[in-house]
Specification:
The chain is built from 9 helices and 6 strands. By secondary structure, it is α/β, with parallel strands linked by helices. The protein binds 1,6-di-O-phosphono-beta-D-glucopyranose and magnesium ion (MG).
């Protein structure tokens, strides 16, 4: 039986992928190339540094490590400007309700995100108070599919990994949960998230009954 729920942020609680895309696209355009929204799918759940490296590869552009840092900072400034206008209206359907349901049932809740901007986003959408622990890109050194972010989340709420379930929209995130010995619920399509124990289109389709059946 499950004692803690760990949630990814982008793609599970909010859809910040569209802001990431706008900011990365602007950067690519300044460098003289473009990439599609379809390519952008490959950046979901991927860290900032790694995302930049992938984009530079797509544009056949080579940059030194120092130059990459400047570019990543530039992108982040545009991104931060965009997310500063986010409101609770951008919470994905059912996310807030499911967090409240979990807490009312006595389950612990944690955030497990690759983003270094997760605190800003949670504050903008007014959800910080619904998490017992927040583990994000500032607190981890290994990216998903390494389980570090979720194991730290489990530890922070004092629950053993096999009593945790992770909610994730990215393949690497599902793998990370499995690598950590946790249950994984995919948010999206079962054709894509094949390693998940269960897949639902969104948290609005989730319930305590489904959680108990895991
Ligand atoms: P930042 P998640 C991820 O969030 C995003 O899906 C990914 O596109 C982004 O590059 C990464 O966070 C890092 O974000 O630049 O804000 O540190 O899905 O792990 O919540
Ligand atoms: Mg995600």
């Amino acid at each position: 039986n499950i004692k803690a729920c760990i949630f990814d942020l982008d793609g599970v609680i909010v859809d910040t992928a569209v802001y990431h895309y706008k900011a990365w696209k602007r950067l690519a355009n300044e460098l003289g190339f473009d990439f599609t929204e379809e390519d952008n799918e490959k950046l979901k759940g991927v860290s900032r540094v790694r995302s930049l490296q992938l984009i530079l590869e797509w544009g056949h552009v080579t940059k030194t490590e120092a130059e990459q840092e400047v570019l990543a900072t530039k992108k982040n400034e545009w991104y931060v400007e965009m997310i500063s206008h986010m409101t609770p209206a951008e919470i994905l359907p059912g996310a807030k309700e499911f967090l409240e349901t979990c807490r009312a049932a006595g389950l612990k809740t944690a955030l497990g995100s690759a983003s270094k901007n997760s605190m800003t986003i949670l504050e903008k959408i007014n959800l910080t108070h619904l998490f017992d622990a927040i583990i994000d890109g500032n607190k981890v050194s290994k990216a998903k599919p390494d389980p570090e972010v979720f194991l730290k989340g489990a530890e922070a709420v004092n629950v053993k990994p096999d009593k945790c379930v992770v909610f994730e929209d990215a393949i690497a995130g599902i793998e990370a949960a499995k690598n950590g010995g946790m249950k994984a619920v995919g948010i999206g399509s079962p054709q894509v998230l094949t390693e998940a124990d269960m897949v639902v289109p969104g948290l609005n389709e989730m319930s305590l009954e489904k959680l108990r059946a895991l």
